[in-house]
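Review form for a predicted model. The reviewer records the input and the model, then writes brief findings.
Reviewer: anonymous (R2)
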Amino acid sequence: MGFGNFNKVVLIFSRPFWDVTQNYFGHLNHSRASRGEMFMFTALSKAPVLIAMMAGEAANLEAPNEVIVRKAMNVLANIFGSACPKG
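Model under review:
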């Protein structure tokens, strides 16, 4: 189909720090190279869980889990500032 890779990262938190009335929210990356990296987040309605979407080059299956989670947390920190948990 030509879409490339598409992966999801499930992030589990102790409590929501995002607006729980929103089912999803997006993030625009500044560079074209990282445009598919954590570009959309879906919130589960009954749990403090976010699912981050990655597509294309950013959905690299070779990256260690720690690197992927760190990138997702950096994006969330850029969106939510100090409300976002550290690490």
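Findings: Helices lie at 65-80.
Further findings: The CA atoms of residues 52 and 66 lie 14 Å apart.
Recommendation: see findings above.
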